[in-house]
Design goal:
This protein is mainly alpha-helical. The protein is 44% helix and 8% strand. It contains five helices and two strands; from the N terminus they run βαααβαα. Helix 2 crosses helix 5.
Length: 131
C-alpha cells in the first residue's frame, strides 16, 4: 500500500507553467475556489475516465536520449508546485484513486487537470523544461 498522508496534510503535485496558468484562470473565474476544490470537481467529472487518461498521457520522448532512462513524463506535469489540502474524507478519496491507478496523487493530478481545465491542452510533443 502507498504511503499516503492523513487528511488535513497537503498533497503536492508538480504541473507545467501552462497548466498552472489555466488553473489560476479557472480559479479566478470562480469566487472562493481553491486548487483543492478544482481537483475534486475535475475528479467528480472525469473519475470514470481517469485510468484511460493516465494511460494516454504518457509522453513519448522524441529520441532515446531525450530523457533519463526509466523516467516517465505525463502531460500536464512540470516544475510548478501546487498543493491540495484535503479533508479526511477527501484524503480517503485521493488514496482510493491512487490505489486504483497504482500511482501516487502527484502523478495523476496533473493529467486530471490537463484534461479538465479549459484552454489549450498540452500536446504529446510539449518539450520538457530544462532544469
Amino acid at each position: 500500500m502507498m504511503n499516503i498522508p492523513i487528511g488535513g496534510e497537503p498533497r503536492t503535485a508538480f504541473v507545467s507553467d501552462a497548466l498552472q496558468a489555466r488553473l489560476d484562470g479557472y480559479r479566478e473565474q470562480r469566487a472562493g475556489w481553491t486548487t483543492t476544490s478544482v481537483v475534486f470537481a475535475a475528479l467528480e467529472d472525469l473519475r470514470g475516465n481517469l485510468a484511460e487518461l493516465l494511460r494516454t498521457a504518457r509522453v513519448r520522448p522524441a529520441s532515446p536520449f531525450a530523457e533519463s532512462y526509466g523516467r516517465v513524463r505525463y502531460l500536464g506535469a512540470g516544475p510548478v508546485q501546487i498543493r491540495i489540502w484535503p479533508s479526511h474524507v477527501q484524503a480517503e478519496v485521493l488514496e482510493q484513486v491512487s490505489v486504483e491507478l497504482g500511482v501516487p496523487v502527484a502523478t495523476w493530478v496533473p493529467v486530471l487537470l490537463n484534461a479538465y481545465l479549459s484552454g489549450r491542452k498540452e500536446p504529446e510533443n510539449m518539450p520538457a523544461r530544462a532544469g
